[in-house]
Amino acid sequence: MNTNSTSAKDKQILIFSFYRDAELHGARLLFNLIGHLKDADSQLKLARHLADEVRHAWLWTKHIVELGGTPISLSDGYQRRLGARLGLPKGILELLALTVVVEERAQNRYMAHVAMPNTEPETKEVLKAVSEDESWHLAWIERKMREIAAQQGNEHRADEALARYREIEKEVYTSLAADEAELMRS
Ligand SMILES: [Fe+2]
Ligand SMILES: [Fe+2]
């Protein structure tokens, strides 16, 4: 490998900045949902969920600073690319479907990163801390999505929205992962 240690660190900071950016956009999505899902149960869960995502963004920020860097602001992060492909969600079901696919991606990505052999112990700690909450995030959002679809008289709409969002998300993530691999080689 011909990268010197400074540029290896810069690459790490860039990756963590991507994670931070995704967490912040996730928080924004939840903030949006808090204005839509008015029932008491959703209001409680959304407040806790939102607090988690903001904390995750902070944990990545803190990790970047501890590495001696500052967060990089990104103009073409994951959610921005995803938003460009999906367009604005048209209703509550689409907003929830978007939340599910980004949560699934975060969970998979963090699990893959923690399993990489060269992941530093300090980074593993952060990855584990931010992964801990993802199971309940996914579970309750997906349940709520099905509940709303059923109330609207068609439970299949939840599955249809999820299938469509998962397919597009996969394409967006594949292009992002390809750009990332290219960057890591440079
Ligand atoms: Fe998160
Ligand atoms: Fe989450």
Protein model, in words:
The protein has one domain: Ferritin (Up-down Bundle), CATH 1.20.1260.10. The protein contains 7 helices and no strands. Helix 4 crosses helix 7. The protein is globular. It starts with a helix and ends with a helix. The model has no long low-confidence stretch (mean pLDDT 92). One fe (ii) ion binds next to helix 1 and helix 2.
Features:
single chain; mainly alpha; Ferritin; 7 helices; globular; binds fe (ii) ion
Total number of β-strand segments?
0
Residue fraction in strands: under 5%
Mean of residue pLDDT? Answer: 92
At the fold tier of CATH, the topology name is Ferritin
What's the domain count?
Answer: 1
Q: Quick one: CATH class?
A: Mainly Alpha
Percentage of residues in helical conformation: over 70%
CATH superfamily: Ferritin, core subunit, four-helix bundle
Structural class: mainly alpha
Bound molecules: fe (ii) ion
Main β-sheet description = none
At CATH level 2, the architecture is Up-down Bundle
